[in-house]
Amino acid sequence: MPSKVVERYKRILSGEQKRFSPYEFEDIQYRKQKVQLIVRYAIENVKQWTPEQARQQLSIQDVKELKLHLVREYIEPPIEAKSEDVYYMVDFAYPYLPRPSEEQRVLWVYQEVLSGIRRHFPPLYFQSIKGEERAKICVDYMCSHLMKLPDVSHLPRIFGKTERAYSLLKKYKLKILVDTLYFSPFDMVTEMYPHLNVPALWEEF
């Protein structure tokens, strides 16, 4: 029974055994439930935290002390998680916890890139349809909050000269978009904002 895994986890915490059996999580049918039980026991009974407290406070050091590194490999991190992040282990154990929206997660990543907390965006972050959505969120933020444009109709005037467009994208850490996703700044702008794909808007620049 999956519930017996907690007794084995207690023995690991007490030092009676070093690790779980190699076969403990072999059965995919019960793997998720077992991992959830272990993480919940560690949070509620060992740390005596609420799930909300755990999401805010759980650290990589806690994970090591609680021996949760033994089950971390069975929890797939979200694409935006950094190597030292462990908040997603709490999300895995408590699926009902409120989650940040996709836009909030993207802006969190982008702001960390802007501030230098991250050296770059996660690998493959802008690939696929989901990646295009993330790119649009970042460009919207760049336009409204960083460049402080009244609206995106000003983009042809600003991005009309390729050299200036690349310079601005580099400044705001979004040059990766035309390096990996779009053919040019013009292509990026007109793909994201189709109403700006009017030759007359670009001709004079």
Description:
- It comes from Brevibacillus nitrificans.
- This is DUF4046 domain-containing protein.
- Residues 106-197 form the DUF4046 domain.
- With 205 residues, the protein is mostly helical.
- Helix content is 59%, strand content 0%.
- α7 crosses α8 (128-146).
Number of structural units classed as domains: 2
Report the total helices: 13
Rg value: 23 Å
Query: What is the residue-mean pLDDT, rounded to a whole number?
Result: 94
Cα separation of the termini: 70 Å
Measured by DSSP, the beta-strand proportion falls in under 5%
Shape: elongated
Low-confidence stretches: none
Structural class: mainly alpha
Element-by-element helix/strand order: HHHHHHHHHHHHH
Largest sheet: none
Which bin fits the share of residues in helices?
A: 55-70%
Tally the beta strands. 0
Protein name: DUF4046 domain-containing protein
Domain DUF4046: 106-197
Pfam families: DUF4046 (PF13255)
List the helices and strands and how they pair.
Elements lengths: L4 H10 L13 H19 L4 H7 L2 H6 L3 H4 L14 H7 L8 H14 L12 H19 L8 H5 L2 H10 L3 H6 L4 H8 L6 H5 L2
Feature tags:
13 helices, elongated, mainly alpha, 205 residues
How would you summarize what this structure contains?
Residues 106-197 form the DUF4046 domain. This protein has helices spanning 5-14, 28-46, 51-57, 60-65, 69-72, 87-93, 102-115, 128-146, 155-159, 162-171, 175-180, 185-192, 199-203. Helix content is 59%, strand content 0%.
